[in-house]
Amino acid sequence: MCGLSGEIRFDGGRPDLEAVRRMNDRLAPRGPDGEGLWSRGPVALGHRRLKIIDLSERGAQPMGDRDGADATVTGVFNGCLYNYRELRGELRRLGHRFVSTSDTEVLIKAYLQWGTACVDRFHGMFAFALRDHRDGRLVLGRDRLGVKPLYLSAAPGRLRFASSLPALLAAGGVDTAVDPVALHQYLTWHATVAAPRTILRGVTKLPPATVRVVEPDGTHRDHRYWQPSYTRRPEHRGMTTDEWRDAVLEALRVAVRRRMVADVPVGVLLSGGLDSSLIVALLAEEGQRDLATFSVGFESGGGEEGDEFRYSRLMAEQYGTGHHELMVPSTEVSGALDAAVAAMSEPMVSHDVIAFHLLSRQVAEHVKVVQSGQGADEVFAGYHWYPKLAVPERERAAEAYAQAYFDRTHADLARMVQPGMLPGADVSGRFVHEHMAAPGAETALDAALRLDTHVMLVDDPVKRVDNMTMDWGLEARVPFLDHELVELAAACPPELKLAHGGKGVLKEAGRKLLPAEVVDRPKGYFPVPAIKHMAGPVLERVRDALHAPEARGRGIFREEYVARLLAAPDEHRTRRGANGLWQVALLELWLQKHGIG
């Protein structure tokens, strides 16, 4: 787990090494254990290292398949190939020699052996950049579920890339104007901005499950190498409910086992819910010793419980983990807000972003790797709105999705946003309609889960976990996003996922390992009262941001709309119940924190 950066020139010039060094410096929290900078011809690569596999200097990056100018391929890599040992054995039998035990060297040799098709063999989370000295191409790749990020900024004659958007800003030369289409998505889709867009016009991101080959002249081609069909294949059609339960449990067991691969201890972010509790139980079943678990909670407020310690303690006691709890007083939320916003590659409005940032700081004092239950709700239909999406008419999928999930309509946005910042059409609704209409996905719910798993999940929950953990040099692994488990879940009949109030097939699997009190408990969230109800120092911070000269000069929102929000900060709710002031303010807080005037 690391941070990567680089630049390639197409105009015959040399890359800007100082710009790459600035990107590398901005990525330091992602890789506090080492740094490297390499340049040859029109390409420069930077790397910040977090030592997880092969702790020796032989695992340092940038790395070539041979030393110095003799290298055929030089690359940088962020993530982990969980099956690197098996791949190394296969590559050795094919004649390749290794000088390290790192998965980075396995990636490079796999590319030499199989070309861009090497990604089909990888089990893991990854983003990489490889310079092929034989043909002058730059090869960029991202894992199937987009767990690892890769941002890009193009300009005449060059392309830059990095593991975070702020790193590209540090390099300079970025068009920082707000993209109206991205703004429409941000305000409509609970802050999700789908790849390849970001909130800034001058920055894009490589979509998940994509390999991009960049030619020496700057042209490129993309290959999307993976997408489950969300249909029932013949081998699945005769399966009973019990057989589905057992298949899901076995696939999750394999996913958890894969993510134990490390040369350092692996802990668990334990909320006490079904998903993280299953991970703890399966790690214990695999014989994991001295397992460290970590939970976070907030003060209760607005009639809501702020922590789930009762359940996490139950699991910790049952499996004898070394358990750590972090209780965050409301008075600390405002102080933690700026640091969390600084860690965001893109604006993120969900309250648990602050929880993850605070928890990651504590966890990083004990371990470098954790497993997390992120993704289970999207993959197995755990949220309360999914039954509303199971409409019988497949052609109504997009309409049902917008009604259940969108924060606002296009007409609502016209009353909020200045005319020059609003696209003339409902671009968010059109995006969802086109995605829902794509081939595959037998039912309306299948189509909704496909959209959530491969778009919303990538650019909201998964991004939050990566950004907040990596800001403290902590690697988070997500077994529920193992691609084979996702393929199985995609084929699972919708009615089995919707059973028992959501995640039915996963709950049935949980009954074989967990107390009924954990399996059947109500779904928990991370309410942060100071944000949800816009009170105290957080509200003052919000007022300052929206009254700042930068906000007035930017002119994204209508002044009368902002005034109404500030006059009644806890009254304006989106259709999904989110605080409207928070969504508006968070965008402005992010832009100001990252120096965008």
From TrEMBL:
Q: Which GO terms describe its cellular component?
A: cytosol
Q: Where is the Glutamine amidotransferase type-2 domain?
A: 2-217
> Active site annotated at which positions?
2
Ordered alphabetically, the record's keywords are: Amino-acid biosynthesis, Asparagine biosynthesis, ATP-binding, Glutamine amidotransferase, Ligase, Nucleotide-binding
Classify the source by domain of life.
Bacteria
Give the pathway annotation: Amino-acid biosynthesis; L-asparagine biosynthesis; L-asparagine from L-aspartate (L-Gln route): step 1/1
A Gene Ontology annotation in the biological process aspect, one of them, is: asparagine biosynthetic process
Provide the GO MF annotations for this entry: asparagine synthase (glutamine-hydrolyzing) activity; ATP binding
Record-listed ATP binding positions: 269, 296, 372-373
UniProt-listed Enzyme Commission number(s): 6.3.5.4
**Chain residues that bind L-glutamine:** 103
Q: Is Transferase there in the keyword field?
A: no
Q: Which residues form a coiled coil?
A: none
User: Its catalytic activity?
Assistant: L-aspartate + L-glutamine + ATP + H2O = L-asparagine + L-glutamate + AMP + diphosphate + H(+)
For this protein, the record's PROSITE patterns field holds: GATASE_TYPE_2
Q: Which family does it belong to?
A: Belongs to the asparagine synthetase family.
Instruction: Write down what this protein is called.
Output: asparagine synthase (glutamine-hydrolyzing)
The species this protein belongs to is Streptomyces rubrolavendulae
